[in-house]
Predict the 3D structure of the following.
Amino acid sequence: MYGYQAERLSPGVHALNQGAQFHLQPRGNVGVIEQSDGIVLVDSGGSPAGAEQVIAFIRSISDKPVTAIVLTHWHGDHALGVSRLLQEWPRARVISTAPTREMLASPDADRFMPGDNAQANAGFMADIQDGANFLQQAAQDQNLHEADRAGFAQAAREYEQFGREMAVARRVAPTEIFDGSVTLPDRVHPIEVRFFGRANTSGDAIVWLPRQRIVFTGDVVVAPVPYGFNSYPSEWIGVLNQIKALNYAVLAPGHGQTMRDSVYLDHLIAMLSDVRTQVAPLAATDLTAEAASAQVNLDVARDELAGEDRWLRRWFRNYWKDPIVSSALREARGQPIVQGAE
Ligand SMILES: [Zn+2]
């Protein structure tokens, strides 16, 4: 229910995906790239248990060691498999942008994932318990539609598993940062790790295989519903256009299924532009983010992404509309956008 499915993107290049289903507490997709002297990973499996799945998959295709793990961004569902992977391959490089490393090394991340501070970890685990209780209550709430109760029931089961996984998880800061780009050379699978600008977070890394024309985007591209928290709408559009300009054959997103065209990318660009256009006149008012979101109409985009699926329509609003309007409002007002602020 909570695992990865392996997909071969080309000989020696694989994606471990959670698939098309929306998860309230997801695991980030993982890229597996075989070079001549070892395996390079894009993200880490989201927890020690997720990393176990990654390790089992690697063992099934190769006896080479993991030589490098590229973290696309700081979120725990991408970063928290690193500790387990380093037990298996202690010499692996862990590479990210400077902002990603800074966040993972900062106590600011304590609210979102376990680290070295026992007291903060206890608080984090208590928050997970509160979240699980909320989801269980919602699953029983007779005022909710049956489809929503079913969604909350599944989310509660997944969140309880997440809690068990977090009890043994510890974040590890990357060992290596890059500025602009870094190349991991290879005869067959050279890898370019690039920073195209701030997008979903302040430090999104993009992994590009120029020979195979495969791009791993991290959460710069997420389906079926993107995440809009503390992001950078105008720069994000620029990053998406740079990804499109790569003229990729395959796009492996941070969540969701592999893409082989730019239909969804174009949707994202259009949605972000639409949000900025609608938010611009509201920025001059003193509306709160919540009030501004009520003035913004994203019904067409919601229908395209979520269709008639009640559960997805709910999360389109909570994970995308409200947070992206809040981000766009701060951007338009010239206010700082801070990672982990909401
Ligand atoms: Zn993610």
Observations:
- The radius of gyration is 19 Å.
- The chain has a mean pLDDT of 96.
- The pocket of zinc ion is lined by residues 28, 75, 77-78, 219, 254-255 (CB under 6 Å).
- DSSP finds eleven helices and twelve strands in the chain.
